[in-house]
Every structure is written in C-alpha cells, then in structure tokens.
C-alpha cells in the first residue's frame, strides 16, 4: 500500500515512519525544504527517542521517502494523511490555512480516487471545509473524481511517540463511507492484530474527541495546581493528597501532578481553540476558561517563590534552570513554562544559566545568547544563588548534591516538579521549596 503524509513535523514524521515500519510505502511531504534536505541526508530534525534508527532503517529499505512536492507523489498514493500545523490564530481559534492549502493542492492535482485523512488537531467542521475546497478545485478543472475525507486525530505523546503510535490505547477514526472505513482498517490492523482498538465514528465526533481529550488532561493539571496552591496555604502536602485521591479507581493516578503549568504545542492551543469553537457557536466553556487562567498564574509560581527568598531584590542574582523543554524526553519548547520564567528573571536583572539534555539548541534558536548555555548540569550551577528544577529529566533525579553544594554561591533549590524530598534536602543543608507543600 502506498500513502503520503503531508507535514513532516513531530506527528507527520512519526506517523510516516511507523507506517513504513509495518511495510507501507510512505512519502513524507513538507514545504520546508531545509527539513526535507536534512531528512534525505539522514539527519532527523527533532529529538524523539528511537526515531532516528527507525527513519534510517526504513529509508534504507526504500519504504520511506521525502519530498517537498505533494503533486509529484499524488498519482502513486491512495491515502493522504494531512499532519500540518494548526497553530492558534490571533483570536485563539485554530488557524486552518495549512490544512486547507493541502486540500487545495490535492484538488488541483488528483487524477483518481483518494482518501484524505486529517491527522492534525482541527475543530469540528474542518473535514467539511476540506471536502468543499477539494470539490471546488475539481469543479474548476471540470473533472469528476471520487474522493473521501476522514478524521484521524493523533494521541501520541512527544517523548514516547513511537511506542504510542505502534501500540496505541485506541485509534479514533471518523468516516462517512464504507470505502474509507475499509482503507483505514487495512492501515491500522497490523498495529492491532490481537485487539483491534479502532473506534469508528462520525467525523464531527472524531474531531471533537481530540479537543475533549486534551482539555480533560489540561483540566486535571490545573485542578491539581489549584489544590497544590491551597495545600501550601493551609499546611497540607499535595503529594499525600495526590496518593489519597489517585487510589480511587474513578479518579486514577495519572495526570495528577502539580507543577509550574502545562505547556507544549497542544494543550495551550487546543484549550484555547475549544473555548473559541464554543464561543462561535454561542456557548461558553466556563470550566476551560478557569483551566487556562489557573495555568497562566501557575507559570509564575516558582518566580514568586524566588522573590520571597530574596525579599523581592533579584538584581544581579545568578539563577540556574535545569530543564528547558516543556516536558522530559523532547526538545520541544513551544509554550514551555521555562520561556516565561527566563523572561521574568532577565527583566528582574538576574543572570541566567541553563542546562537541558536535548533542548539547548532549540532554546538558543528561540532566545539567542541572553542566557548562559552550560556544558552540563554541574557547570550550570556554578556560582548560582538558586537552582530551579523546571523539567524532570531523569538525569536530574539523583544528582551529586555534594558537588552542587560546593559549586553554588547560595544553597537554595526551588523544585517546580516535586522530584526531591524536602526533609533530605534540608538535611543536606539546602533551603528547599516545591509546589504544594
Ligand atoms: N506534537 C504533538 O505532540 C501532537 C500530538 C497530537 C496532535 N498534534 C497535532 O498535529 C498537528 C501537527 O503537529 P506537529 O507538532 O507535528 O507540528 P509541526 O509544526 O512539528 O509540523 C508541521 C509541519 O507541517 C509543515 N507544513 C505546513 N504547511 C505545509 C504544506 N502546505 N505542505 C506540506 N507541509 C506543510 C511544516 O513545515 C511543519 O514541518 C497539529 O495540528 C497538532 O495540534 C500534535
């Protein structure tokens, strides 16, 4: 089977590579020629565990190809997945210009039946727009060619993307024809041989499912951050509360971790977009508005703790950040809380030293040389007045505190992810504060 994946970013590259891995012949398309050129040379533009070997293996086997031209591969393929970006527009709604540009190219150049599957996160009604754009282009050409549209939102997690794609909890597919359902079944069956977990539904429900899932997860995070903040005020320990409620099977243990707010390329924009969709349809998402508000405030939680430590006088202080990416195991810094914090620290007159195992060059690309990029986690704490733990990468979990103690100017640790033990840190001679205790 031959397919094309349009948009070779985090989702497109993983999707294409995983389909190639099960034997599908895949062409990955992207308008970014630099990205395509490096992929052709075997250089992977993103950090994702296990992806590089898989890309190289499938490129070598000639099951995975890269191109900047969708029209050039259109005749060869039957199914086209669109995984282009859907960034927030100025008003918070999803910008569909990339999705519709792909649809237009398909309509202009297709010569036989195609199934067009939207994998990008898009608001309800987008498949209808994709269909209309393709039909408009076919009408302009005066040709009649059958095609189907489908919705197949992606639930992979950056950092665990390959295993999420290869053995998903479930696959959600919105279709409106038997032919489309058969093609999607054929493509996903090899991943789910023993337990076929594809949930077929109508297209609007599939489009909505993705937003509902991300909004639910964002809600759990903001809820726990709110509880954590109250714990601090009333003298409770949020970690205990989390264990206490997480053991209730109706609640479950996952996604109950307080911290410094959610970031990344999905939650912030998807929560915003769902609020906007509701607004455009005369409804108000009251819970989600509060979720957003709590998240914005939470991004300042560590900065406020720092101000308290120095009675508001941060000028000239050297502050270390461990972790820059919005979560571990990725170099993605889109909407990363670290960016908000760095901005606040620089505005307050601090010197900032940073270290991240994967996101250093991405950070440099975004903010330039306004901070010091340390060679390792110990170089980062040299002469620091405070160490802030921002992203819970594994290598930060059990550091050599004796070395750190000697290297730092003052022994203050602010833990934005609650990975250290307060009692232990205090016994080691550090002033320690975390979230919700
Ligand atoms: N990143 C995630 O973890 C994740 C998870 C689930 C869903 N999603 C959704 O998937 C979509 C893609 O996200 P991403 O993180 O992979 O984005 P990304 O920015 O990493 O990749 C998008 C790619 O599309 C390319 N592109 C734009 N217009 C194009 C066109 N007309 N033709 C060909 N290529 C084009 C861009 O150059 C870019 O390389 C978004 O809607 C996102 O919300 C992302």
Word description of this protein:
Helices cover 44% and strands 14% of the residues. It is α/β, with parallel strands linked by helices and 437 residues long. It folds into 3 domains: 2-201, NAD(P)-binding Rossmann-like Domain (Rossmann fold, 3-Layer(aba) Sandwich); 211-297, NAD(P)-binding Rossmann-like Domain (Rossmann fold, 3-Layer(aba) Sandwich), CATH 3.40.50; 299-433, Rossmann fold. It is globular, with a radius of gyration of 24 Å. The model has no long low-confidence stretch (mean pLDDT 97). The structure holds nicotinamide-adenine-dinucleotide (NAD). Residues 6-12, 29-32, 35, 83-86, 98, 101-102, 120-121, 154, 156, 158, 265-266 line the site of nicotinamide-adenine-dinucleotide.
Helix percent reads: 40-55%
Q: Give the overall form.
A: globular
Rg calc? 24 Å
- Please summarize the sheet with the most strands: 6 strands, parallel
Q: How large is the count of helical segments?
A: 18
Average predicted local confidence, pLDDT: 97
**Remind me, CATH topology of the largest domain?**
Rossmann fold
- The level 1 CATH classification of the largest domain is Alpha Beta
CATH architecture of the largest domain: 3-Layer(aba) Sandwich
Stretches where pLDDT is under 50 for at least 5 consecutive residues are: none
- The tally of strands reads 14
Summing up helix and strand content along with how strands pair, one would put the structural category as: alpha/beta
CATH homology group of the largest domain: NAD(P)-binding Rossmann-like Domain
């Amino acid at each position: 089977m031959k397919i094309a994946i349009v948009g070779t970013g985090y989702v497109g590259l993983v999707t294409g590579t995983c389909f190639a891995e099960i034997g599908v012949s895949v062409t990955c398309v992207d308008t970014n020629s630099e990205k395509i050129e490096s992929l052709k040379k075997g250089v992977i533009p993103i950090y994702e565990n296990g992806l590089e070997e898989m890309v190289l293996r499938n490129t070598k086997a000639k099951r995975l190809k890269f191109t900047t031209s969708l029209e050039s591969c259109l005749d060869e393929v039957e199914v086209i997945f669109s995984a282009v970006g859907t960034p927030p527009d100025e008003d918070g709604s999803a910008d569909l210009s990339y999705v519709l540009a792909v649809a237009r190219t398909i309509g202009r150049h297709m010569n036989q039946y195609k199934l067009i599957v939207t994998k990008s996160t898009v608001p309800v009604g987008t498949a209808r727009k994709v269909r209309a754009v393709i039909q408009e282009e076919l009408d302009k050409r005066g040709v009649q060619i059958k095609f189907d549209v489908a919705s197949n939102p992606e639930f992979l997690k950056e950092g665990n993307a390959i295993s999420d794609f290869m053995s998903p909890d479930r696959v959600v597919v919105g279709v409106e024809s038997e032919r489309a359902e058969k093609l999607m079944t054929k493509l996903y069956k090899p991943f789910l041989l023993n337990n076929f977990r594809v949930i077929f539904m109508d297209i609007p429900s599939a489009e909505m499912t993705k937003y509902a899932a991300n909004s639910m997860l964002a809600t759990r995070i903001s809820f726990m951050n709110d509880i954590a903040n109250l714990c601090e005020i009333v003298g409770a320990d949020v970690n205990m509360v989390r264990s206490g409620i997480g053991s209730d099977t109706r609640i479950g243990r996952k996604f109950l971790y307080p911290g410094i707010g959610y970031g990344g390329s999905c939650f912030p924009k998807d929560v915003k977009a769902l609020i906007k969709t509701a607004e455009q349809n005369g409804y108000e998402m009251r819970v989600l508005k509060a979720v957003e508000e709590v998240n914005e405030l939470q991004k300042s939680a560590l900065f406020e703790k720092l101000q308290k430590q120095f009675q508001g006088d941060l000028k000239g202080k050297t502050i270390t950040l461990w972790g820059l990416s919005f979560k571990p195991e990725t170099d993605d810094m889109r909407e990363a809380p670290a960016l908000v914090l760095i901005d606040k620290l620089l505005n307050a007159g601090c010197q900032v030293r940073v270290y991240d195992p994967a996101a250093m060059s991405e950070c440099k690309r975004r903010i330039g040389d306004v901070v010091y990029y340390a060679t390792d986690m110990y170089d980062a704490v040299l002469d620091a007045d405070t160490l802030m733990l921002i992203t819970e990468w594994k290598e930060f979990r059990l550091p050599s505190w004796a070395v750190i103690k000697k290297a730092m100017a003052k022994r203050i640790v602010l833990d934005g992810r609650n990975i250290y033990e307060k009692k232990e840190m205090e016994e080691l001679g550090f002033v320690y504060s975390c979230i919700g205790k």
